[in-house]
């Protein structure tokens, strides 16, 4: 596919009052303007219910599972020793980490799809997640004095910089970014393989499980990390929602409406990189959650804006349920990234075919 053909695949969305068409508005709290959508609130409540169902499944399905009717009692300290160990030392931190990582990937995907004005512009498709994984792998084995999150963040930023610079058009040519992102992801995988080749056997086994995207053996330290990052960066991203929604109308329209285009886009990209990098640090480069969650959120809410909050909730519910499926549906547990890749790959093919048909019409 040539660069010129790539640019013809999906033309930018037509300019117009996207916010008005969505029926959405903004809830103003003094100087703050937070996005508000009545349908989105109902969808969000449904996603919260799906997250609760996912956690109940995570605590109750399989060996040493706790019956749903006994979960509340165990959480309040009335369980047996085995039930307490199973819930607090294994299943609950894993389920909460899944919710947090899913929310991180969902919000990051919403940010990048809004910035690039294209449904393919998610962190895993443009190579960001793979770059963050390479950075984390290098730091964890070769530069152990540097915190792993710093390595993941650096790897993600380097990957995005290469993709944006290689596209030759900043963030305005999303399909060039996809093509270059595939190359960046391949180079990142090569870096991880190089690190694996130099690692000791136990270290190599740990990294091999992590690079497929896994929530196995995740503990309370991972829960604490996502519990800090999700609300802080989630609020910052929500505050950018109005600017991102206007940016989707086009740069000229956004400038006419008083939006600082370059500053808003740069800030959104940095936050999106951090969101994805922290998700990769906790669970590895889990595929397609960042691609699928924002699209599902937009379809459910019928909103044309980025839908940051709903994308995060959809991502949380998706990953929590997917992890339960990965643990219990295949005879023996498999990394959750393999399960999401199996389903997400089909969705990506559907998305690419739809984009090609739209471009050919």
UniProtKB/TrEMBL annotation:
GO biological process terms on file: siderophore-iron import into cell
Subcellular location: Cell membrane
Keyword Cell inner membrane: no
Entry's Gene Ontology cellular component terms: plasma membrane
Recorded superkingdom: Bacteria
GO MF, any single term: transmembrane transporter activity
InterPro entries: ABC_BtuC-like, ABC_transptr_permease_BtuC
Record-linked PANTHER family: FERRIC ENTEROBACTIN TRANSPORT SYSTEM PERMEASE PROTEIN (PTHR30472), FERRIC ENTEROBACTIN TRANSPORT SYSTEM PERMEASE PROTEIN FEPG (PTHR30472:SF24)
Protein name as catalogued: Ferrichrome ABC transporter permease
